[in-house]
Amino acid sequence: xxxxxxxxxxxxxxxxxxxxxxxxxxxxxxxxxxxxxxxxxxxxxxxxxxxxxxxxxxxxxxxxxxxxxxxxxxxxxxxxxxxxxxxxxxxxxxxxxxxxxxxxxxxxxxxxxxxxxxxxxxxxxxxxxxxxxxxxxxxxxxxxxxxxxxxxxxxxxxxxxxxxxxxxxxxxxxxxxxxxxxxxxxxxxxxxxxxxxxxxxxxxxxxxxxxxxxxxxxxxxxxxxxxxxxxxxxxxxxxxxxxxxxxxxxxxxxxxxxxxxxxxxxxxxxxxxxxxxxxxxxxxxxxxxxxxxxxxxxxxxxxxxxxxxxxxx
Length: 313
What we know:
With 313 residues, the chain is mainly alpha-helical. Helix 5 packs across helix 6, helix 5 packs across helix 7 and helix 7 packs across helix 9.
């Protein structure tokens, strides 16, 4: 049978036949090196901790949002007990029964269970959120009020630090005079040790410094006695020990004056008032300017700009 006209191949045509999609050219050496380089870079590029955490969160959310598959062992056990997909567990006809499991709230961080609520409460207190009245009305501080309160607190801390500095100056100036009524330090004890014995004999303006040192020393001895309690037999009595040795071993407690109404009344004053009293005492008795940090030779105190901090620039 002779071929038809349609089956004949036109050898004179200039059209290029399309290549089959399955046809692929062989990979050249340059392409192979580039492909291997990309694969090596992909293997070497390890995900960061943040990326791993994000992938873990996505996998967890996906698992939690997926219902229990019918191929699961748990689903098959519940199906034997009469469970059907979309129905609730428990007695039939219970309108309040849950058809979906409880949602999982993932807690991030290493803080305790109630720590987040405590942080929120403290944050509300710091920004000035106050619950007032039976109706639960809330009053918030404005930005200006918040800044004013912060400024007052900083100023109070600064004045409190100045009060401690003024007390140390008074201790250095009046320490020797306070010892004159009790004798000299021939036994080698320091001024601080002498003054710690009877704080009521110290000027109330700087008595708080001595009392604070006394309390810290007592706490230090208590910690030392706690560590040394197993190294000494409490029934042992050494006739050569004096009072200080017995106090050091914890056999005899040091007398500490717990109540001091005069000191408590002085500490109840505002820091600015306490500082004013101490500065006035330094100028009148010792001709010492707290702001100049200098003791003048006479009561005129020539060269001192004034009484206040602002006058000293």
